[in-house]
Amino acid sequence: MLRIVKTNKAAERLFSGIYFTLITIAGYNVLLKTDYLIPMLGGSSLITIESLYTDFPIIDNLQYSTEVKNYYLLTLGYHLTSMYKLFRSNSKARRSDFMEMFLHHLLTIALYMVSYLTNMIKIGSIIMFLHDWADVPTAFTKFGVELEGKFWSTFSWCMAFPILPLWGYSRLYVFPFIVYYQWIAPFTQIAPNYLLEGHLDQDRAHVFPMMRYMALFLSFLQILHVYWYLLFIRALYRSWTKGDVKDHQEELSVDLITDPNKLVEYHIQKAEGHFKKFD
């Protein structure tokens, strides 16, 4: 029974790893065709962060606008599926990380929809991309943790070490740099002449509050990034010093772990759900 549970989790991790690998490659190919992929993420050195706000909210470049929107909707589909899986797994066994994961998925989906509907696709697609490629080693590390044997233990370590520099660079450096630039972008890029009476920039100034709210929501996401980064450090430290290798971000509830009867019942329910698929 325990093997079935671990096999199911390993399969989910493997799927996530393959997905993030493919979507990262696809996202980079799409964004490389645009005129706003900043150098910090592999774009041209001639592109600056100001290009994210050029001609906002109009995107009149049909050469890449359709591909970017398809990329947007494809990744949104993954996060909607993740929200469904979160509620489904929590209904069977209480997860210790349910609230932070629920908050993460809720903020992500809300930001997707608002940015798409307000045509802030340039900023949104960049933020999506920097999140995806940092998740590649994370998913494969979790995949290796669910498997037994020296090979998979070594595999997990090889995947785990890139997590800290990738997360640190993408989510603790580039991400806040883009997010907090939104506090000054309205005044310098979008409507610099909004104080001039009769100027067209006064009509464009209506986006100021929206961008502030977007930056505020993204700030909550940044808090989760710091929290998870500390969890990674803790997990690596415990694995190195005590050999305690497990996914600390998705531990079962305390009563399941401390009560053997509840733990057995949990595994039985998971196994029954697995076998029902073949009835």
Any descriptors?
mainly alpha; 11 helices; elongated; single chain; 73% helix
Written overview of the protein:
The chain has 279 residues and is an all-alpha fold. Helices cover 73% and strands 0% of the residues. The longest helix is centred in the last third of the chain and has 36 residues, at 207-242. The chain is elongated, with a radius of gyration of 22 Å. The two termini are 17 Å apart. Residues 251-264 and 274-279 have low confidence and may be disordered.
What's the topology here?
Elements: H1 2-32, H2 62-92, H3 98-117, H4 121-145, H5 150-160, H6 163-181, H7 185-190, H8 201-204, H9 207-242, H10 254-258, H11 260-276
What would you say about this model in short?
The protein has helices spanning 2-32, 62-92, 98-117, 121-145, 150-160, 163-181, 185-190, 201-204, 207-242, 254-258, 260-276. The chain is mainly α and 279 residues long.
- Gap between N and C termini, in Å? 17 Å
Order of helices and strands: HHHHHHHHHHH
Overall pLDDT metric? 77
Query: Could you give the count of β-strands?
Result: 0
Largest sheet: none
Low-confidence stretches: 251-264, 274-279
Number of helices: 11
Which structural class do the helices and strands define? mainly alpha
Helix amount, in percent?
A: over 70%
